[in-house]
Amino acid sequence: MIIQWRKSSYSGTANDDVCVELGRLAPGDGVGVRDSKNPDGGHLTLTSTQFTDLLSQLKQHPER
């Protein structure tokens, strides 16, 4: 399966030093998260529940 990576809509400015891409992995395998500046450096694999929890935490604490 080829992973279709999607870059954050907040990426693309001149000062992008923290950019991530997300990719839907094979059905049941969750979501991949990788550094958009180092796409060959591997990715973090999160279950769908872990990814939802991560988004919830980021929304509650945007300054982190």
Automatic annotation (TrEMBL):
<dbReference type="InterPro" id="IPR007278">
    <property type="entry name" value="DUF397"/>
</dbReference>
<feature type="domain" description="DUF397">
    <location>
        <begin position="4"/>
        <end position="59"/>
    </location>
</feature>
<dbReference type="Pfam" id="PF04149">
    <property type="entry name" value="DUF397"/>
</dbReference>
<protein>
    <recommendedName>
        <fullName>DUF397 domain-containing protein</fullName>
    </recommendedName>
</protein>
